[in-house]
């Protein structure tokens, strides 16, 4: 018996298993092959190339057995037609994977796509319409399988430019942002306020929204905007504003803004308004939001109104304070450079990811109970947040932050608390010390009186919200601004220094939009691309991973088809432009017949499990066809010319 080491034995078992699976997928009998002989062990087993090729073959055979399936979600386009950029992002995703996943289509498994082949046929309206019946295109893609596209697709230069430039993934853009942290740091003075600000790294880690980071063409929600065009430097006298939002779940599965409250350092309520999402609400989550269907019945304030009001109310060096601020920012669809998150400042776990709730922090540090079973009040939460911040400021940077060496256990014992935060001696509490942070505002909750909702003198809109939380102190608040009419008021007094930080421009510079496709090919050395497109769109220099053919040098369609057919199987990405009006056709009659046969032949040379995209584009209308070429298409391809 031929002996092998235990390590080789394990490899041998794996090799046998792979060979057996290949034979089974091929329809052969695995028992007919002797895998135990010394000859097999001596030659095949030690050959790494054989083993690698076998694994590659097995992976391909598995993919062919279970080809990827396409599911369209065109509703995610928010009513917009498909555009060049949408097709480009699909091609980039299946080709490179480390880019953003398209929202409007899913391919499962996406890694089962072996090749992406894109044809763009520039033609007249008659050819666009003729493809819908009794053609190869109709047979291959299925009846009524076309998708109407935007008119901009007719511009071939823009279409292929979008294909040849790959947008960076959000992860890659955020990496660049972190590397440009100095953009923010140079506008922050070295004082306690600056020390407590959320860092650029934390903004990235907790997914804060950033300027120009959203794809507007696919954005279902309102685009994210900065609170100001330009920002001043954070100094000792830069003001705090506590913000809190309530959200409800809408039909698109997002938590959208339904109430926003802003409180200044003196606990004056600057803004408190209900907001109605454009998307239909499917869950009011009243237990947590305090929002009911009836409350929003006659509300016509939108999130864009809130964005404008914030921009007007806030000075250019404002510091926004909140609890898990990233959630509020996402709901308001805003971004702001200067933030303090009280859940990070008062870190009881020592881990940023394990943040204490506002209710817990209020009970431990202020000896107050909030957020009962009747729902949350955003004014109450904003006031509590401001009180916690002032309490923190009065004790120093290290206070309340275990990650900076502060001991919660020691502090809890000194203040009559257990290590879990429960109060041992009710008579000994923090009320006297904590009230220092409260300032002149009402210290205790009001009686459970009916909310007094005052209205704006100019437009008649409510200046506050009829809160449903019993005994909530917000019921007697006097709100300073109307969310709409505040735009006509005088803006707040700002620093005499000229604002210098352009948050949007800074991000545009450090989180650039895209990289040439050649850069992605270089990072994936086993991949290559073939371009048969007009000149003037791409650098014509060929290299090991890219081959370029100028379609303007071809006078007949047959010549172009022959050239593409020779190359198509050898590349992972194939782009072909067909100018049906310029190229000569041999077939008499309608040119659609020649184009249809040309596509049949070229597609027949593509690999199995390739993603085939065909775009017919005319000045009046453009249609897109998308399918995966599987072995089920054998009968359709047998008539290829």
TrEMBL record:
Protein location: Nucleus
One Pfam family linked to the record: RNase_T
Gene Ontology cellular component terms for the protein in this record: nucleus
GO molecular function, one term: exonuclease activity
Domain annotation Exonuclease: ranges: 239-398
Highest rank taxon of the organism: Eukaryota
Xref: InterPro entries: REX1-like_exo, REXO1/3/4-like, Ribonucl_H, RNaseH-like_sf, RNaseH_sf
Alphabetized UniProt keyword annotations: Exonuclease, Hydrolase, Nuclease, Nucleus
Keyword Repressor among UniProt keywords: no
Similarity comment text for this entry: Belongs to the REXO1/REXO3 family.
Protein name: Exonuclease domain-containing protein
């Amino acid at each position: 018996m031929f002996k092998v080491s235990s390590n080789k034995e394990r490899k041998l078992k794996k090799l046998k298993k792979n060979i057996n699976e290949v034979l089974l997928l091929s329809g052969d009998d695995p028992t007919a092959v002797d895998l135990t002989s010394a000859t097999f062990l001596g030659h095949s087993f030690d050959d790494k190339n054989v083993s690698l090729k076998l694994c590659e073959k097995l992976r391909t055979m598995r993919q062919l057995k279970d080809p990827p399936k396409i599911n369209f979600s065109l509703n995610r386009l928010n009513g917009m037609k498909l555009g060049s950029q949408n097709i480009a992002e699909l091609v980039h995703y299946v080709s490179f994977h480390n880019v953003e996943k398209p929202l409007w289509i899913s391919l499962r498994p996406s890694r089962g796509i072996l090749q992406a082949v894109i044809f763009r046929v520039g033609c007249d309206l008659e050819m666009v319409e003729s493809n819908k019946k009794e053609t190869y295109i109709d047979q291959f893609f299925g009846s009524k399988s076309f998708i109407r596209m935007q008119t901009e697709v007719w511009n071939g230069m823009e279409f292929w430019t979008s294909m040849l430039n790959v947008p960076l993934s959000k992860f890659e853009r955020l990496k660049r942002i972190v590397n440009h942290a100095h953009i923010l740091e140079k506008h922050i003075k070295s004082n306690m306020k600056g020390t407590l600000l959320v860092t650029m790294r934390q903004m990235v880690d907790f997914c804060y929204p950033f300027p120009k980071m959203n794809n507007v063409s696919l954005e279902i929600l309102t685009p994210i905007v900065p609170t100001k065009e330009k920002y001043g430097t954070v100094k000792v006298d830069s003001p705090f504003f506590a913000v809190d939002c309530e959200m409800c779940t809408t039909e698109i599965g997002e938590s959208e803004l339904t109430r926003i409250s802003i409180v200044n350092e003196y606990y004056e309520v600057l803004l408190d308004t209900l907001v109605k999402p454009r998307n239909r609400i499917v869950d009011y989550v009243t237990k947590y939001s305090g929002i009911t269907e009836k409350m929003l019945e006659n509300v016509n304030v939108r999130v864009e109104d809130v964005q404008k009001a914030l921009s007007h109310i806030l000075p250019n060096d404002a510091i926004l304070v909140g609890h898990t601020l990233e959630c509020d920012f996402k709901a308001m669809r805003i971004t702001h450079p200067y933030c303090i998150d009280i859940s990070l400042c008062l870190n009881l776990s020592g881990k940023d990811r394990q943040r204490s709730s506002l209710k817990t922090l209020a009970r431990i540090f202020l000896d107050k109970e909030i957020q009962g079973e009747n729902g949350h009040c955003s004014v109450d939460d904003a006031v509590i947040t401001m009180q916690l911040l002032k309490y923190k400021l009065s004790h120093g940077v290290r206070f309340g932050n275990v990650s900076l060496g502060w001991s919660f256990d020691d502090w809890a014992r000194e203040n009559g608390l257990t290590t879990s935060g429960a109060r041992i001696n009710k008579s000994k509490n923090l009320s006297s010390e904590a009230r220092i942070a409260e300032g002149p505002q009402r210290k205790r909750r009001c009686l459970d009186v009916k909310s007094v909702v005052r209205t704006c003198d100019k437009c008649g809109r409510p200046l506050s919200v009829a809160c449903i939380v019993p005994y909530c102190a917000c019921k007697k608040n006097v709100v300073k601004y109307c969310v709409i009419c505040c735009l006509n008021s005088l803006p707040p007094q700002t620093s005499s220094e000229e604002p210098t930080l352009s948050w949007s421009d800074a991000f545009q510079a450090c989180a650039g939009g895209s990289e040439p496709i050649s850069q992605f090919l270089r990072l994936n050395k086993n991949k290559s691309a073939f371009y048969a497109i007009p000149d003037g769109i791409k650098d014509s220099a060929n290299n090991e991973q890219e081959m370029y053919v100028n379609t303007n040098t071809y006078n007949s369609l047959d010549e172009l088809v022959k050239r593409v057919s020779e190359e198509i199987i050898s590349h992972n990405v194939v782009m072909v432009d067909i100018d049906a009006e310029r190229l000569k056709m041999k077939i008499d009659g309608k040119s659609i017949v020649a184009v249809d046969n040309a596509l049949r032949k070229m597609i027949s040379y593509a690999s199995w499990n390739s993603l085939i995209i065909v775009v017919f584009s005319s000045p009046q209308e453009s249609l897109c066809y998308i399918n995966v070429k599987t072995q089920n298409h054998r009968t359709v391809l047998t008539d290829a010319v």
